[in-house]
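Homework help thread (please don't just give me the answer)

Our assignment gives two proteins as sequence + structure token strings and asks us to describe the second one. The first is just a warm-up. Here they are:
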Amino acid sequence: MPLSLQDVRDAAAAISGAVLNTACLLSRTLSEISGAQVHLKFENHQFTASFKERGALNKLLSLDASQRQAGVIAVSAGNHAQGVAHHAKRLGIPAVIVMPRFTPNVKVEQTRAFGAEVILHGENFDEAKAHALQVMAQRRLTLAHPYDDDKIMAGQGTIALEMLDAQPDLDVLIVPVGGGGMIAGMASAAKAIRPGIEIIGVETVRFPSMYAALKGSKPEFGSNTIADGIAVKEPGRLTLEIIRKQVDDIVLVDEGDIEEAMLLLLEIEKTVVEGAGAAGLAGLLRNRARFAGKKVGVVLSGGNIDPLTLADIIERGMVRAGRLTRLQVQLRDLPGSLAKVTAALAEANANIEEVHHERAFTHLPVQSAVVDFVLQTRGHEHVKQIMAVLEAAGFNTRLHNSE
């Protein structure tokens, strides 16, 4: 039986009040940037900061009394684990979460804090999954699959009901794709309500499993991605069947596209999204001509990101925008030379963040030095002005950015 609109409506009724009906808001600035009318669905505002708790709760509510008493088991190193753990605790259902051994400690502790028993096993997801199936059989637990389950898909599909309730005339829904649970559920609901609506999935170039499955090609995988929440090597069997029939296309984005989207959401919308959560916006921005003039709904699927990773992304984004730049200046190694350079930089309104003075590791003649400056600037044009000021003051200067 394919997933029906009624299945999704039943899920919406079941989870109502326990999961947020998150805001679906027009972003004027992102609309100007992209050329489309962009409506953002803020699933990063859920209690566990991800859409995953919709499906998790719908699955848990479908269990009978004996299943509830025995408990559930899930394999996840991320948002699904927290969704299952949080709602299982609320409902008094024992939850076991199996995670690969290398899972970051912060995720392990967050899941434990939600009241679940965490088992760390295996070097990767597949090994963790194999162990989970053993534990499930031994303890007679019910598996809460992250995506390949009708109840999970129906729960995730409630996002489409809310988006079309808020904006009934959306032309396109753009949805991040990992295992495919969210897009399968959303497409099943949205196409039934509005048959002409376009459903577009977004995967990363490094993990194009669903894209390859639809094209009938063999996917090549990267070692890692900033969008770890959608880094799935094998699409769901049930989800793939629905996606073949209901989803119009899947587009690919690279790491830089996702970083740019994360930064735009932070700067413009003042909202934190994880890599997977920004994939939808990245897909829109990479394919602007395709969506120009259309009314587009973009799901911001989650906001669980390590603050240090976010700091790295902000810094890299500042470098790309020219707002953080590295200049290499040659000077005579004499008293007062450095003061003259810094005075010239001050005159050009550049703020010095770091200075590295190099005498030995250089091909310049003795009594010469190279100084690397990391500067805060207004952008690429300002960098050109700063270099012109330094050259005019007699200093040989070159841009020394990694790009």
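The one we have to describe:
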Amino acid sequence: MKRITGIAAVIAVILLLVACTGKEEKGENICQVYYVSNSETKVEMHPHVMEADTPEGRLEELMNCLATEPEKLEYKAPFSMGFRVLGITLEEGRLQIDVDAAYKELPPITEILVRAAVVRTLTQLPEVSMIAITVEGSQLFDRKQNAVGWMNAEQFIDNDGNEINTYEEVRVRLYFADESGTKLIAADREKHYSTNTPLERFVVEELIAGPSGRIDGLYPSVNPGTKVVSVMTKDGICYVNLDETFMAVVNNVSTDVSVYAIVNSLVELSTVNKVQILINGEVPSSFSSSSFERNLDIVTTVDN
């Protein structure tokens, strides 16, 4: 009897371990599904436990999530907003989603939110790196009649909470370093960003992220390891508080060039006239001034 009881105890422990292991594996198989709020002013993410165990099955499962009205009525499924998905094609990490003409009837902001929800949801799959939406086989254009093309999650900036506020399309001018690291080159960048993020902070973070690949003679102008502590604008002066990594020179780009990369980029905004850069809340003693104005003397072009 004691032996049987012991065996039963061992079996119970094994079953308990199996159950716990299953829960851990299940917990690691969670994707965030993004929905559009009923007010069509923001996107919300909600966890979904994946059941499929094949790449095709996972893609189909998330597509179904995006097309199924959730139980809560505070938000809408992106693929159930008045248009139909006609088909999908996945090749080498690029997922093309073809929709019917009703898609073009979506209000501009709603259309951006739908794109944000779809792209952020589906690019969580390791098999999907880029997404393109076509309308009955034709190229999708935004409200300014610019081709939308291929999209990834990085094109839709979100905040740190559980919600993504309204996306707006913004065009900013950023200053990156030339190959020598002694001059700056201006480059325009269009991107959708969350209105929850101050535009000034968005500009600084885009500079830190660097140019889109080392092409056309553009190189990072700010140490990519720099952390943004805070960004605030008051009375035309933008106060940019960074961590000490900013002071570390990389790619032969001097601190002065990095400073004016930030200054010139921020002064392009209508709200900024001067910039004060702080390191952990203090103005470095090595800086020639407590605040900086635009400096175009170190700006050049790719042709030069």
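TA reply:
I won't write it for you, but here's a hint about the kind of observation we're looking for: The helical segments are 2-27, 55-67, 108-122, 199-209, 255-267.
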